[in-house]
Amino acid sequence: MERDQRVKNDNSWCFACGEENPIGLKLKMSIQGECCTAYFTPQKEHQSYDGNMHGGLISTLLDEVMGNYVYQVEHRKAYTAKIEIRFRQPVLIGETIKAEGKAVSQHGRLRTMEGKIWKKDGTIAAEATASMMLET
Ligand SMILES: CCCCCCCCCCCCCCCC(=O)SCCNC(=O)CCNC(=O)[C@H](O)C(C)(C)COP(=O)(O)OP(=O)(O)OC[C@H]1O[C@@H](n2cnc3c(N)ncnc32)[C@H](O)[C@@H]1OP(=O)(O)O
Question: Is pTM beyond 0.80 here?
Fold first, then answer.
């Protein structure tokens, strides 16, 4: 399906930030300093094994704060073209984490982004780099 044919008005159902999505993460994002920031406390339904948060959902958090940075700062929608995640430490169910995303460089419509997930003790649980393409 061409992008223009897709439903354009259902952004409130975004899995990561949509307010109306009943199974979404309902992230609230804000620009703090040079980053887009969101806090999240994983619940039991967000786990993988042994009380650890699912890595796919950690990736979702990183993707969202990087994409949302572009939207909030440039007022343009961007599509994730490539993303790479390094999972450094488990995130535990019930543990509040901070996700941060920022831009590091740009070339034409392509933005190179960085994201980090911080634990309360100031250590990094996961980090990402991504290429995001501005919508034409
Ligand atoms: C009105 C209210 C709105 C509210 C709104 C709220 C929004 C609030 C923010 C939400 C934040 C969401 C954050 C999650 C965002 C997703 O999750 S998006 C979903 C997952 N991603 C996708 O579905 C993307 C699927 N891929 C595509 O659609 C297309 O491949 C892309 C990425 C748009 C690129 O397609 P394209 O624009 O046609 O560009 P293309 O011709 O392929 O490439 C152009 C140039 O860039 C280069 N390039 C392409 N990809 C790459 C790459 N990965 N690395 C390096 N170079 C690349 C090409 O080589 C090419 O260069 P040249 O050929 O000119 O030398």
Answer: yes
The answer to whether the complex's ipTM is over 0.85 is yes
Choosing from 1, 2, 133 the residue with most ligand 1 atoms within 8 A of its CB, the one to mutate for a pocket test is: 133
Domain boundaries, the chain: 28-134
Three-state secondary structure string covering the chain = CCHHHCCCCCHHHCCCCCCCCCCCCCCCCEEECCEEEEEECCCHHHECCCCEECHHHHHHHHHHHHHHHHHHHHCCCEEEEEEEEEECCCCECCCCEEEEEEEEEEECCEEEEEEEEECCCCCEEEEEEEEEEECC
Of the options 3.10.129.10, 1.20.120.1730, 3.40.630.10, 3.30.565.10, the CATH number for the domain spanning 28-134: 3.10.129.10
**Residue list, ligand 1 pocket, CB within 6 Å:** 11, 63-64, 67-68, 71, 77, 79-82, 110, 131, 133
